[in-house]
Amino acid sequence: MSVVETIQHDHAEVHDPHQQHHFATAEQQQDASKIGMWLFLVTEVLLFGGLFVGYIVMQGRFPEAWKSAHHHLQRELGALNTVVLLVSSFTMVMAVQAAKLNRRKQLIGNLWVTIICAFIFLIVKYFEYSHKYHEGLLPFKAFYSYTGPQVPGEFHFFSFYFMMTGLHGFHILGGIAVMLWILKRAYAGEFTSQYYTPVDLIGLYWHLVDLIWIYLFPLLYLIS
Amino acid sequence: MADVIQQQVQTATISGHHEVDYLSDGNGIKDWLYTVDHKRIGIMYLILVLTAFLAGGLLAMAIRLELLTPARTIMDAETYNRVFTLHGAIMVFLFIIPSIPAALGNFVLPLMLGAKDVAFPRLNLASFYIYVLGACMMLGAILTGGVDTGWTFYTPYSTSTSGSVALTTMGVFVLGFSSIFTGINFIATIHKMRAPGMGWFEMPLFVWGMYSTAVIQVLATPVLGITMVLLVLERAFGIGIFDPRIGGDPVLFQHFFWFYSHPAVYIMILPGMAIISEVIPTFSHRTIFGYRGIAFSSVAIALVSFIVWGHHMFTSGQSQLINGVFSFLTFIVGIPSGIKVFNWVATMYQGRITLKAPMLFAISFLLLFTIGGLTGLFLGSLSVDIHLHDTYFVVAHFHYVMMGGTVIAFLAGLHYWWPKMFGRMYNEKLAALSCALIFVGFNVTFLTQFVLGSRGMPRRYYNYLDQFQPLHQFSTFGSWILGLGFFIMLGYLLASLRGPKNAPADPWGGTTMEWQALSPPITHNFSGTPVLTRAPYDYRNVPQGVDK
Amino acid sequence: MSSHSSHHDHTKLYATTLGGLLVLTAITVAASYVNFGSANIVVAMFIATIKASLVAMIFMHLKDDKPVNAVIFTSSLIFLGIFLGFCLLDADSRDKVVTGHLTWVEEQDREEAKKKAKMSPAADHHAPAAEHH
Ligand SMILES: [Cu+2]
Fold this sequence. Notes:
The complex is a heterotrimer of chains A (224), B (548) and C (133). Chain A has 224 residues and is an all-alpha fold. Helices cover 73% and strands 2% of the residues of chain A. Chain A has one domain: Up-down Bundle (Four Helix Bundle (Hemerythrin (Met), subunit A)). In chain C, helix 1 (11-33) packs antiparallel against helix 2 (39-59). Copper (II) ion binds at residues 262, 265, 311-312 of chain B.
């Protein structure tokens, strides 16, 4: 009469120490983690998406201000940062591959390069920000104090410039923190071709951060 | 097979063994606060959600009491503005959105799938604590002056009024993450944790509803998050996006807000529909009619919900072109909703209906939701909405959907799974009485408001013309009947907890997997891994009169 | 365990992809110095989308991964598109009176900030931009 039949749990079965008990197999656990990560990335896309929509609508309201304001950005620095992030994405995918292939040294090396790239990105960003700070090109009506020639609506541009790159910068910082943690676990030899899900997931996150920058760069720096 | 069940019963009685029932498995405060058991997290959510409902309900009673007379009755106008804002914000963000998914869903979803837990138990606990944090922030906002913007936080008023707008909106931002985490967890769970043998079309329909809800939670909530951040920044420093005084577009705020909040209406109603899809076949003792129709209509509602938000903005000054587009698209939602209602009624047709409390609530739902849904079509048509916008007609409409729909369905689910959750039966007669009082009280309160609205009584007003007083009084009178109904319910549910654990595993003759677990279930839900051998709602082999 | 992602050395593929991404970056920067009029933004977004697809398909393994992950990710782009689409449709087809008025308010604020304290007579000229007398 019952809908279900019950299979007795086989306690003799050997478990991967990383496999949580509510999963039947390690593959099920890995697939679930991946789906979870992709869903998280979806929420990230829509979180940034709100800013993108705001940015584009405001550009429609103040097209002249957008054209004039973006001259204050240095597109060489933006391009440099694009290259830095793309390289870091490459080293990250190499790190994931190294974990998958049991190459511990390669994993650690590539993680280090990725982290260094992330720091270079932040340093470049720091120079850009401080340059704007000295000119008074700050976000929001309350802080914007630029007095040079301009058209109405430029502070709107800088509000969005700082909100978008700032939120992105926080994601870089968060990424660095998690990568350092992963690095520590990699040194401890926790990752093998049997278990490398955390490396896989931070990889996905890092590529998304790169992917968002791929759109931020032309939108902010290359308007004409 | 029989030995296995026998063994479950035996091991459940040995205390200290890991197959003791989940309620008895450690009762220290830490055993609850640090638990990653989806059932315990569900119960903790349930307690907080019901507390929020009580608070929001008392505020609603206060609003109705104030409106007993045209002038001041019990509070001044500013307080009134804060009270209705608080009522809306608490009911939406602290009660309805988490009520069915995070409280009941958390409890039954893994059981229905034959899983030991959700995919990410720690994320589940995190979701709970983030909810607590968000609730504390909203509580803080009340203590520091409250908010008078209405739960919609429309600009430019919300960027210029005093009060704790920033703290409230940040509370909403935080609560959003709680909702997102639940959504992510449920989607991953449904994809990967189904019992062996359970394909997508062998899942109970409740699971389909949870899935559709989770899709909206994941896709829409982040936009609410960024909207709240933008609002706070606009208010504090001036981004220039929403505030017209500095070149912003207040209508854009409404787009941002409703891009989340219209789909959020379906975060609220889809779980309600999901419960009804369980209760109706169980108490009609009949296979659900149109399984795939109901399953796909849930997904369709979730998707269509993203392209209709502008129907909240017909009088906002948005372009006439998209007014027309949104009005047209709004009518599409009627199709999947209609499919569901017809399928439920068809399931009951020629069924052997037993009128237990969950079924009484489910039938109330059918009546009330149909009224709510159809009046939604009135409001979705452009020309009618110009007349009815911001009147009590709208208030009545969304209360028919949110309360007559979701809350009543939540009560149906609460009564349906109460024996499973606590292992105890409640007083059936008092439950029927309370259901009747709630049904009558609800209609007295809100049917009246349709009339008020169509005669031009605007919503959110503190004063009103003398000619509206009889109707307002009638509505307030209804709120007292409603209050009495809920008071009785609180009484018999609490009383049942003092009784012995007397509930059988399957008190209603349900066919979905959660009824195969003990009542209350053991910590790991099932002893061993259950395998599905038969589709849900297959009543051919259920003995007649299993529930007398 | 992970049957879907093969355990082979893909270094060459990844390096080629990086090369492609760098070349596309160079192209998009170069294109920004050329004036295509309003097509500039289209060109830039087109190149960005190619780059994003490369990252998603190859670095994020969507090409070889289970389709469900690609569906999940694509859904975010579709719904973002819906969001953007309706907001832009509204902005572009809204009554011009409203925007004209707001620009005027904007000018007002700027003038106040500069403390020129001129009473602007502009109100009567600008406000009814789309009204026909
Ligand atoms: Cu709506």
